[in-house]
Structure prediction request, 486 residues.
Amino acid sequence: MLKQSLQQKLLQKLSPLQIQVIKLLEIPTAQLEQRIKEELEVNPVLEYAGDSQGSNDEYGDEADSVPEQEMEKDELSIDDYIRDDDIPAYKLQSRNYSKDDKHEDIPFSGGTTFHEHLTAQLGLRIMTERQRNIAEYIIGNIDEDGYLRREIEEIVDDLAFSQNVEVEEQEALEALEVIHDFDPPGVGARDLQECLVLQMERRANEAESARHAYQILKLHFEEFTRKHYDKIAKRLHLDDEQLKDAVDEILKLNPKPGSSYSNPMSKTAQHIIPDFILEVEDGQFQLSLNSRNLPELRVSTTYSEMLSDYQSNKKNQSREQKEAVMFVKQKLDSAKWFIDAIRQRQNTLMTVMEAILDYQKEYFVEGDEMSLRPMILKDIADKTNLDISTISRVSNSKYIQTHFGIFPLKYFFSEGLQTDSGEEVSTREIKKILEECIAAEDKRKPLTDDKLALILKEKSYNIARRTVAKYREQLNIPVARLRKEL
Prediction:
């Protein structure tokens, strides 16, 4: 039996403005311009404010009066939409930049790709059409590093199913051998050993050290990767000097031959655009948002005038005209929310960055990494009275330009540990000491994690061996056995 009943529920619901702010906080300055362009395309009420100049204050006079709750359309009169004072322009760019300052990568229309480079070499070989087709298909399966990551059997099957060409494995291998002779040396290799062997084959007759290097790669590759130099020397009857010369030859080889083919016309360089700019004037920090290339936005007066006309002729409006007015109302709301969301984004970014600047003040004076204090997201959240998730969104994918370089905001966050004296230090400081110890070690007898832990303990950092191993891995430093040199 069906029953009807009334229930009251208390729900938390984000307003459209709050949703906009959350989304805008996540994107860096480099993507904000594109996001603004997208909004301009879908909302005809938004427009560029033109060349009018405002004050140098990036946040405007109303930065502190951002509405936090969604406006209820049914409660608003037409007058609420047509008053110019309620639809302020939003100043996004500083006055010391002009439109001529806009910088964009200009893509080249010419140039050849890595695969076109290989195909061009194929055209210089005397081959049958069948052999050429097989070789072209193999080239198409070579990745940007220059490796053929697929098995020959798979390529043979693909040729049969997709090209309707029956190919024997031997035919495919013969075509691959032709590609192995192409430049850059090592291209078309199926694994690292084959890649290095192919490169060394071209130099094996140059000197004795090159011949020994070829033998090491061909016959004792596993021992070489594990740095079991004693076994290699014994099996190839090499003395220490000969072994060292052979290893030096191997270290000159390129493990990724495809990367050696670099055509500057085939792609544009990716630049980091800082979100914040920090300058020091007379010993004082001057922090600002990087608003270059961001337009000034405002709500179109044309649509406000449209609503004004509707206000004076309410009684004579058709159904279509009323629907058009409702559409304009919705777009006006959306435009206001977007402009206010950008303003709130800028305010939040500045609030968080100022808190980080104050927390790490000693570091920002000289840029000495050892001066960084332990700092986690909660520290800044407590300092700004913002949620940890907000601090995370702000610090993610954002950069600051300082007088000593450009850094991601995540760089300034690190865990803390206590020394034997009770002093709290950043884990980055400990990692720095680890790097220095490993850089100064005897490479013939590298320091193990246990020995590194003892060294740190002597410096009052009481850290377990497993923690040392974790920090070493975070620094991309291999274990002691793999750091061994002759």
Summary: The first strand starts at residue 46 and ends at 48. The radius of gyration is 32 Å. The longest helix spans residues 319-359.
